[in-house]
Write a structure and sequence with these properties.
By secondary structure, this protein is an all-alpha fold. Helix content is 74%, strand content 0%. The longest helix is centred in the middle third of the chain and has 35 residues. It is elongated.
Length: 676
């Protein structure tokens, strides 16, 4: 027995608003005399989202993408209308180029590039045989889509709009709580085994939370409330959290090294941890914080300790300082966000605009995805041209859309198959509406009553992440058929041909993707690690005066994104059980932070030794990228010599933290006595 779906109030509200926006777009399109009003209805559903900010963001970028695709169609079709083969190839290459640009930009803007690609396919392929109607059809499609976008934006922004603020603030507070919990666990003097278990969970949560915050923040300027005035503070807070993470991870490692070297945390460092924990809780004024830093440095610089213990202690104290200062900055930014939401004037930007955190992108995989969509579209076009199939344009359109839609997945084939099954189930429903309902709906009110049951239920499932893909397949099957078919002249032959062509194009896309594009999680994991080593090599090879030498915080944001990408890919891999993937990525994150500090303070060190060390690091990291054996043993004496020089001179003390970090992360099993 099939259970009746029970939607929550939010799901029903989303479904009702989406349906109302779609019907408004359908009505206005019909009143304005546009040739295919169901394009407007379908667009209103495509840009729908439970949060009003997302709707406005998607609407803007979909409109930009549609105009871009329309412009490409207007340029390509008149120029190549005499050669259908060249025209099909040009359209396929355009879709591939736009998909590549979309995959290289993981922000909300990527939607515009993707739409610019397959909008040209949706508009252009049906006009290959009728280029004379090109301009009128392209303008009509753009008007229909624009009308659907405007209706969806108005309805979701006016009728009980759902602000982004609760979701974003909840994510911010959770990320701040994760950072505070991680710092508290590090500075806790309780049971070590219990603390160690919590630290693994903290690392996993904070990387995911910060990456989600980065992606969600791209929609803040489109929010319909006061949140949009706080977009600078939200961005600075994300950057501040990202900058705190390498300090937290490094402090965790240094405390473990101190316990190994001294059978416990030295008393000065323990007192510094207690004072630092108090500063995190109480938030003392800056003068008290400066006094804490001076006291900590005097205590941990006791020369009665061994050089290695002194170096570890100085490094631990430096990271405690960074932690307290960074935590206070993040709290101040959180207060700025709260003030902005309360209606106060937006505060001045607190962050450093000299760098921007960049998410991880894989150029090789993006090129592979672009090649796959070009090949799939060309195969569909070849089958269409050589068979002379009347509905073959739908096959080419489906191939382009399917490859673009699933291109962000490691292995898109399972998702494609799930979508194909939903398309098959939608065919009898589409036949019922096209051939049975539409001829009987003599006015708009009757049409709304006929299609309301289906689309209201589908809209409820679209609001559920677990069922959204299947619901989307059902929706595209029905709404796409309504949009592509000429309702007034539809018959069984045209209906079956159109649906068979759509299914054939989707099947071609799935098979070509399975052969050319599908990759395993292990393959993606190796690519992510190689990209990290490539970044580390670039950081080591920076010149002393390069502004990018200060880009360690941007590297931290990118590394946290990579950790968030690695965690789900290695969750079921026996080689990465116990959080090893996150630990390895955190080690690479700490190496990047250490190189950034070393580049920043290299003017304090002898020029020739530090230049030789950085050059050796650059070569070693490049060897990791190429897979050739890296000879790291020669680096340890170089690091130790520079570290001994820094310990002997207080002027070089800022570089101690960087050198200790490199020694611990590159040579975790190195002896505790510094090599001469």
């Amino acid at each position: 027995m099939i259970k009746r779906p029970r939607f929550s109030k939010q799901e029903w509200l989303f479904s009702l608003k989406s349906f109302f926006a779609a019907m408004l777009a359908l009505y206005l399109s019909s009143r304005f005399g546009l040739p295919r009003p169901f394009w407007s209805m379908m667009t209103a559903y495509i840009v729908a989202h439970p949060l009003a900010g997302h709707v406005r963001s998607k609407s803007l970028y979909r409109l930009c993408g549609t105009v871009l695709g329309c412009a490409a169609t207007v340029v390509l079709i008149p120029s190549l209308s005499g050669s259908p083969v060249l025209l099909s190839l040009a359209l396929a290459l355009w879709v591939g180029a736009c998909l590549y640009l979309s995959l290289m930009d993981r922000s909300a803007r990527s939607y515009a590039f993707m739409l610019g690609g397959y909008s040209a396919a949706l508009i252009g392929f049906p006009l290959v045989d009728a280029p004379a109607a090109m301009f009128d059809t392209a303008v009509a499609r753009t008007e229909e889509i624009a009308l659907g976008i405007v209706c969806a934006s108005l309805v979701h922004s006016i009728l009980l709009p759902a602000s982004l603020a609760p979701s974003l603030l909840g994510l911010i507070d959770r990320a701040l709580g994760d950072v505070r919990r991680w710092a508290g666990d590090l500075m806790s003097l309780g049971a070590e085994d219990e603390v160690r278990k919590r630290l693994v969970q903290d690392r996993r949560r904070i990387a995911t939370d910060i990456t989600q915050l980065r992606l969600l923040a791209t929609h803040v300027p489109f929010d319909n409330g006061g949140l949009r005035w706080t977009r600078h503070a939200v961005g600075d807070l994300h950057d501040g959290l990202a900058a705190l993470t390498p300090s937290l991870s490094a402090l965790e490692d240094r405390l473990a090294a101190l316990r190994d070297a001294t059978d416990g945390v030295p008393e000065p460092v323990a007192r510094a941890m207690v004072q630092g924990s108090a500063c995190l809780d109480a938030g003392p004024p800056s003068g008290a914080l400066d006094g804490l830093r001076a006291a900590v440095r005097m205590e941990v610089a006791d020369r009665r300790n061994s050089p290695w213990v002194r170096a570890l202690s100085i490094d631990a104290a430096a990271h405690i300082d960074e932690l307290v200062a960074g935590w206070r900055r993040c709290n101040a930014l959180r207060a700025d966000i709260a003030a902005g939401l309360a209606g106060h004037a937006p505060p001045p930007k607190r962050g450093d605009a000299s760098w921007r955190s960049v998410l991880h992108v894989d150029k090789g995989l993006a090129l592979r995805s672009a090649f796959t969509v070009v090949l799939s579209t060309c195969i569909a076009c070849a089958a269409w041209i050589f068979s002379g199939w009347r509905a073959g344009s739908s096959m080419a359109m489906a191939a382009a859309v399917f490859c673009s839609f699933f291109a962000t997945m490691d292995d898109p084939v399972p998702g494609m198959h799930k979508f194909l099954v939903a398309l098959l189930w939608s065919m009898p429903v589409s036949a019922f509406y096209i051939l049975g309902v539409m001829p009987l709906a003599h006015d708009f009110g009757m049409l709304v009553l006929c299609i309301a049951p289906l689309f209201l239920v589908v809209g409820g499932y679209l609001a559920r992440p677990a069922s959204s893909l299947t619901a989307l397949g059902m929706f595209f099957g029905v709404a796409g058929t309504l949009a592509l078919q000429d309702i007034g002249s539809a018959d069984w032959v045209s209906f079956l041909e159109g649906n068979m062509a759509l299914f054939a194009g989707a099947l071609i896309a799935a098979r070509v993707t399975a052969i050319m594009r599908s990759v395993s999680s292990e393959w993606s994991t190796r690519r992510i690690h190689r990209a990290t080593w490539r970044d580390l090599s670039g950081m080591a090879g920076m010149s002393a005066r390069s502004k990018r030498a200060l880009a360690r915080d941007a590297f931290a944001g990118r590394m946290l994104d990579r950790i968030a990408l690695l965690i789900p890919r290695t969750a079921g891999d026996a080689a990465y059980q116990g959080g090893d993937a996150a630990q390895l990525a955190m080690r690479e994150l700490r190496i990047g932070a250490s190189i950034g500090v070393l580049q920043q303070h290299r003017h304090l060190l002898p020029e020739i030794p530090v230049r030789e060390l950085l050059a050796a690091l650059e070569r070693a990291f490049l060897a990791q990228v190429t897979g050739s054996p890296a000879r790291l043993d020669a680096l340890l004496p170089q690091i130790d010599r520079l570290l001994a020089l820094c310990l002997a001179s207080t002027a070089c003390e800022p570089a101690v933290s960087a050198l200790v970090g490199l020694r611990r992360d590159l040579f975790p099993a190195a002896p505790s006595d510094l090599q001469p």
